[in-house]
Structures are given as structure tokens and as C-alpha cells.
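Moderator note: this is an archived Q&A kept for reference. The question asked for a predicted structure of one protein chain; the sequence and the answer are reproduced below.
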Amino acid sequence: MIASEIASYLTAQQCVVAGSSEGTIRTSHEIGTYSIEIVGILGSGFPHALPDYYLCNRGTFGRLAHVGWPKMLILESNETLEDIGLICSGSSDALALDFHTPEKVYLAGLTKAIATFDRALVDSECNDEECLLEFAGHWQFAVEQMPIVLFGESPDRLAEIVCSREKPGAESRYSKPIALVKGIDSHSKNYWPRKQGESEERIKSGKGLLIELSNLPTPPAPGECLVQWWMNCLQAQPANERKLLRDKARHFRSKELWILCHARYQDQDVWFALIATSSQKERAPLAVDLLQGWAFSARKVEPHTRNYLIPRGGGSAALQEKSILLVGCGSVGSIVANSLASSGVGKLALSDHDRFCLDNLYRHSLDMLWDGSLKSHAIAASLRSKYPFTVFECFETKLLEFSEDDLKSYDLVIVAIGNSTHEFAFNERMIGNGIETPVIYTWLEPNGIGGHAVLAGGDYQDGCHQCNFLIPGGDGERMLTPNLNFLKEDQSVTKHLGSCGSLFLPYSEIDSSQTANLAARLAVRFLLGKTMLGRKSSWRGDLDPEDFSELQFSDRFYQFESQLKELPIKNRLCKLCSE
């Protein structure tokens, strides 16, 4: 369907069509007391994606939320569109479009574009609020060159930063300007961008400050004087903060000053940077009467801070105060470690006495470069540079060898050793010695049959791991393996590829990942207060028992209907926790 056919459809839907040409459609609209014209550009993705909609005569409307500043666009047809501003009405990637009816796709997008102006043009106060909410988008129109990467958070409203640039002509893998908060201790020193910022191969560039702002002015328009804008920003701050900045300026003289600012607006973080330069050393431009002689350029800030990167990656900064001991760094444990660090856990102690061997290469998170390395040390080393806000510790201590004081020092212990005998003994020890640290036991079964995670601890009134070893329907008699298993106990489940010395439990990386995700999710939910002690969760593979005729499946396998659900573990017949 060509533009003219869509224009005819729009006319039939009571839209005022101002004209159409190859690939473009213009429509006129009345918004309050304003008359606007919108041009839609169909583009090569249409109708599988919405067209791009632009406000015509953009320069006459001033600052508008969700509308880009004026630009010129040359279409494939060589048609030139001037003074148009892109209307941001959401990404079509999140929309389900009926591409069989292009005319309806166009109208749906146009309707969303028109709705953008219902508040932006009619309610100026609302428009300013929306502009502040999308500060970063407006700031993009003012910025120059590449962004500044910031490492470290300021404990106060004002902190000094160390600034560095790449040397002219250098061929560095990291060319972005870097700002490091002085006295930084929030990043691992092995975090690669931080190492670059501290490298002697870079040029130190003047002085810098990280400023926490209480109030935020609307972002500058393209071409607006940044000196005047920064003056307005300073004047908008409370009197006590203006005094703090003035006092700092008295003792801060430079030809160049990097000013990195952070503000909170309606629970959103706003970052921006200004680089101030002067022909001679001047007091820092931190007060209205100290701006003369300074020129400003705007920069974007890429904050490598815990309060930005962790939530941006789906984690929770609240977990930064939590410490976890993970015992067992095999296929399941290694993935658990990665998941916990990516969730934001602040301290992660890893323990495994075993060394990584290439036999497990295809189901372990480590690669072949770690062959022969202690698993706990290798995993910690591989994760330190990826998760700079997690402190890793490494041990070779076995589960039953940890002291009471060690176990009590953690918020959670995760056992991923796959040894039910040691797990049972550890559970008895925790209860017998009154160690209330919560524990998650996690293990998987062979051949993709399933995996499990159990959470117990505290005063054990909600059950203990021994509850999972009682014969279902019995009188409290104990099994040798957990009753959660989908295989009956006392049968051989290992395989070998040559001799007895090559015995192994057959499972894939997919199986260990699913089990690790089960355990890690249970851990994060508990530490965030979203679930309680005494819970168990399992996943069962979608397989046919007849394909494994050599194995005997438990009744639970056939009756299982609780995929990934959290269920209570308490068994009143358990002699250990019920007493």
C-alpha cells in the first residue's frame, strides 16, 4: 500500500491530510489553541515497524517533552525536510502490529504521536516536568565528543575527582575520558576500565569535582549559552549548598575543571558533565560571580557506580550489604556464583578443594585457560573484572571443615557439592550447634531429569534439610537420598568413557544452568525478603522414562505438578527439627 492509499484511509477516518508524496504523509491537527502539522515517513521497515513521525516547523515551539530539536532530513527520494523534530512516542519493538493492514498501523502510530502534545503544548508545567524526566535525551543535543566515564560514588555532596585523557596519537583500547573519585574503594583494582584510568600512559587533565545537586533546571536548548545555563543551575540550589560550592572555589584554581553532576528527580538518576576552560588559572566557576572568563562544553556521563550499573543490569543495590558463602564450585556452583554477583551481592566467598579439569569443559563456566587451577580461585579471578562491586574470597575448605564462627559470619550459605551424605551431616551440625545462618542446598540429577534447591535455617521451626530425607508416607524413617529426587535411591547413575577411573554423572550445561538459576533465584528472593525459610523448589525435565529403561523413577517424578514453585519443607515427623 502506497502513501496515497494510506492518505485516503486517513481522510475517511476524519483526519485532515495536508498532502502526501512518495513515502511521506502530512496531517494537520488542532491541539488546544495550537495548530500543528505532522509528517510521517514510512521508511523501509514499514509496516512491520511504525513510521517515524516528525513535528513540522519545530523551531517555533521551543522546548517540548518527547520531541527532538530541529533538524534537516534528506529522504531517499531526494526530498528535503527542514525544521522538523522527531516525535518520540515509544519503540515499535514493544508493539504488536498487524502488518497486513498498513493503513491501521500508520493511524495507530499517528494517534500515539498526537497524544504526545496533549500535555506538552497545553500544560507548560507538565511539559517542564517531562523534560526533566528525559533530561538525558535533551542533554544529547548539547554534548560534544565522547562521554566521560565516572568511577566511584561520592559519600558527600562534593568530592574531588582525578581526570585523565588518552595521549594524542596513542592507540589505546580505551580512549574515553575517565574520572576517578579520589580515595575510590568501590571498584576492584582489576576492573579493566579503572586500570586504564589510573594508567601512567594517560594524560592527567586538570582538576575535577563530583557535585550532588538538590535541584535540576530544565536541560539546555541547542545553541543555548552554557555559561548562562550553569548560572541558572547554581542559582537553583539551596543557600547552604551554594555556600559549600563557593567555599570550594576559593581553594580551587585551575585552567580546566571537569564538573560532573548528579541529581535525583522523581526517583530517577540524572547525570551530566561540563568541562570548563580558561586561558589562565582562575578560581573554580562554582558561583555566579566566578563565571567570567570561563567557557563551557557539555559532555555525557557514563556512571560506573554501584547504584547505576547494578540496577541497570537487573540486580539490586540492596544486596551490596549481603555476604554469601558458596561451597562447591562445580558446574552448578560456578553458575550460581556468576548469578549472585550479577544480582548485586556485595561479598561472595567461594570454597572448593578441587581443581578444574578439561573433562568438564563443556558444562562448566570456566574455559580451557583455567585447566589445573583451583576452581574457587579461578572463578573468583574470572568474575572480579566483570563485577567490580563484589568482593570475592577464595578457600579450599570442605563443607564439614568450616568453623562455627565462619558460618555465623555470613548472611547465607549455599551448598552445591551434590553429596547428600555431607549435606545431611552439615544440617545436623547446624541445628546441634545452634548455628542459625540460613542454608540453601542445591543439586541436580543426571540426564536432564531434574534439579532441586532447599532453603532452611534460623530456628528451624519451618523445617530442616532432614525433612527432605524422610520416606514419603512413612513413620519418620530416613532415606539415604532426598525424597525430592525423581529417581529412586540405591541405583547406579554414573557413566564412564573407558574405565572405572573415568566415572562421571551425565548432565549438560543446560541442566546445571537451570539448577543454578533455581538456587540463585531462591537466594536472592530470600535476601530481599520476598520468601521465607523452610522452602523447596524443583524443576523436572520433559522426558520419557522409557528412554532410560536402566533407571527407576520415583513416584514423585510421575506425580510432580509443582514446576519451579516454592513449597514448604516442614515434616512434623522429623526428629531433628520438630523436637
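Archived answer notes: The radius of gyration is 31 Å.
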